[in-house]
Amino acid sequence: MIKLVERDFESFFKAPFNTYSSDTPYVSPMKSDLVRFLSSKTNPLFENEEDFTFFSATENGNPIGRITAHVHRASNTLHKTKIAYFGFFDCPNNLEIATMLLKACEEWAKAKGFSKISGNFNLTAMQQIGVQTGGFENAPFTDQIWSPPHLPKLLEQNGYVQSFPMTTFEQDITKLDAAKILSNENTKRIEENGFTFAPVNRKTLDTRLEDARNILNESFIDNPMFVLVSKEEFDF
């Protein structure tokens, strides 16, 4: 018997381990990190516990699927949208289970007054995003989502359409000519534009991290879906 449970963290955490075999490239976030993510007390993304929920699908008590439903208030404000999100979508190749999880998110979003739902976001566009649609023969890099080929098919069967295709590129840095990238001419041009190179050590770490946050925000401000990362989020 398949059953949907809400806000049961243990089943939420265990679901992908029961769903994806050990020979897949799936790597789970650390349990302690997921605990921090799914709490308004620790995660600055959420104003309160009403901003999110999470569901697990169990079969005879065995968790085999999961999903989050949540809101990113800063994104809706910035982009003038009214969108809810789903994330951490993991399930077997089973349409009944996928539909049960997605419908739970859709109903949550409607009850909150949202007119649209989008995903997969774990939990924002500045974190892990999307489901894998190709390149399954390649291993994922650090902090990249791996998901099985059946997930995009299950989404399409539930009426979802692709909206923001992305590609990962691989560059062998051992074959790059560092002298051409950072030639004297390029270095001079960088310095003329006000850039400086600063060391990172224990004494300067806090300052350099804040520099990194500001550079990140300034560099990505015009990118689709990007939202300025607050100091609280960056520190988190």
Describe this structure in words.
Helix content is 36%, strand content 16%. By secondary structure, the protein is of the alpha+beta class. It has 2 domains: 2-157, Aminopeptidase; 173-235, no CATH class. The strands form 2 sheets. It has a 5-stranded mixed β-sheet with strand order 1-2-3-4-5. The longest helix has 17 residues, at 95-111.
Per-chain topology:
Elements: E1 2-6, H1 9-19, H2 31-37, E2 52-59, E3 62-70, H3 73-79, E4 83-90, H4 95-111, E5 116-119, E6 121-122, E7 128-129, H5 150-157, H6 178-181, H7 184-192, H8 205-220, H9 231-235
Parallel strand pairs: 4-5
Antiparallel strand pairs: 1-2, 2-3, 3-4, 6-7
Name some characteristics of this structure.
single chain; alpha+beta; Aminopeptidase; five-stranded mixed beta sheet; two-stranded antiparallel sheet; 9 helices; 7 strands
**CATH domain fold name of the largest domain:** Aminopeptidase
Q: Please give the order of strands in the largest beta sheet.
A: 1-2-3-4-5
Number of helices: 9
- Unreliable stretches: none
Helix content: 25-40%
The CATH C-level name of the largest domain is Alpha Beta
Order of helix and strand elements from N to C terminus: EHHEEHEHEEEHHHHH
How many distinct domains? Answer: 2
- Net shape: globular
